[in-house]
Amino acid sequence: TELAQRASVTSWEPGQVIVRDGDRSDGQTYIVHTGLVEVWNAAGLALVIGRGTSVGERGALQGEMRTGTMIARGPVQLLGFSPEVFGPVAEKLGLASAFDRADWLWRHPTFAHLAWGQLLDLALDFRPIQLPPGDRLFTINDVSDDFFMLVSGSIALESGSGELIGELTAPGEFFGGRGAILGTPRNTTAYATAPSSVWALPAPAL
Questions:
Q1: Is the N or the C terminus of the chain less surrounded, counting Cβ atoms within 10 Å?
Q2: Residues 78, 1: Cα–Cα separation, whole Å
Q3: pTM above the 0.70 mark?
């Protein structure tokens, strides 16, 4: 409630440019309150965002240029938060490390079509896990709570009989999603065969 009271409200007419690619950030972080906003990049229309979507966090906190042009598709209202308001919230949420995860996701083809603000939301849900060689991530018949993505290293998948089913080595490979979605026990054992970094995504977020 206190945060909402400190937000500014701006209104935009249909077709009006809200943010232009290459502009220096004005320090504001925005949330779409009403209406739809088109996000354009060099390739054309990238996506359309609506109520509740945040934009501008990275530029506001790191002083970077705006990436992408935002145009109002119909009447739009935005909630704006100054650095003085948003800064303490960002620190509490651990946005600095989440920025790095969001940048990593942005470079992955699976996520490249998403707005950076959406990637940041996803990055905040990911939980980094570091595994030395031999450490198990999960064991067969464990409860499936998380979906995983390999960031670096290698993860072996082993059957109940101890047979090696496969080894994940490519950054961005996903595993464990079926059990997390269906809520079924793990049907393999997963362990690191090299120093590995894995990001876990809770089933509700998935």
A1: N
A2: 17
A3: no
